Amino acid sequence: MIIQIKNIGVLTILVTLFLLHSSFAQKDNGLASWNTIGLQYKLNKKITFDLEQHLRHKEDFTFVDKYFTQFQTSYKFAKNFELIGGLRFIRENDTEGRLQGYENHFRFQVDLKYKYKIKNFDIGYRFRYQNKNYLDENDLARQNFRFKTNLTYKIKNWPLDPNFSTEIFNRHKKVEDTNSFSKYRLTFGTTFKLREIGNFKCYYRIEKELNVDTPETFKIIGLKYTYIIKNKKK
Predict the structure, then answer these.
(1) CATH number of residue 97's parent domain
(2) DSSP for the chain?
(3) What phi and psi, each to the nearest 5 degrees, are found at residue 167?
(4) Quick one: pLDDT at residue 28?
(5) Which terminus of the chain is more solvent-facing, meaning fewer CB atoms within 10 Å of its CB: N or C?
(6) Cα(218)–Cα(35) distance, rounded to whole angstroms?
């Protein structure tokens, strides 16, 4: 089973790189920024809690895209395996159409993660189910199945280990429709860890729509800071 999971991850990377060059018509939405500040509490070696505040800008930082608060908890139930559940309350800025302004959304998600090491490489896979609802009106939930592959190269005596990840989205539509791949992400970044201060992460991301006539492409600069608290009780 583990060998099959590893093969799926490699295949995902190859397919996503192919998709990056396979579409000719596209719309460029300028540069966006995703900023996060978080607090993490490690109860023990198996259970962790996270509280994060996110702020995202779009169209060369000229508009607020959305801001949201997210709470999640993770549980390491077996060697290299982790189960994560998250809740997210979102204020999303609608800047198109006749009715514009901030909308209220709620999202929950469930992740299954698997990671392992090969020499200087840390390799991880994440399968996510997410469900997002528009709170201001009676609307059908938007559901996505996502698969992410993550690769980090560990450099001896160097704090900025390079990281690359690829993620593909499969949107679950109405019964009469078929499911389809809706978008993918490619991310390049690094994480810098300071024992007394926390973790700093920065990345550059490309996100592109799939299976639409004129796919939109988003270029994203991301910054994230997480302060970590460990339970000192044995």
Answers:
(1) 2.40.128
(2) -HHHHHHHHHHHHHHHHHHHHH----EEEEEEEEEEEEEEEE-SSSEEEEEEEEEEEETTTTEEEEEEEEEEEEEEEETTEEEEEEEEEEEEEE-SSSS-EEEEEEEEEEEEEEEEEETTEEEEEEEEEEEEEETTS--PPEEEEEEEEEEEE--TT-S-EEEEEEEEEEEE--TTSPPEEEEEEEEEEEEEEETTTEEEEEEEEEEEE-SSSS-EEEEEEEEEEEEEEE----
(3) -140, 140
(4) 63
(5) C
(6) 15
Alpha carbon 8 to chain centroid distance? 19
- What is the tally of structural domains in the chain? 1
Residue 22: domain span: 2-230
pTM of structure = 0.83
Note the pLDDT tens digit of each residue in 186-228. Answer: 999 999 988 788 999 999 999 999 988 888 899 999 999 999 9
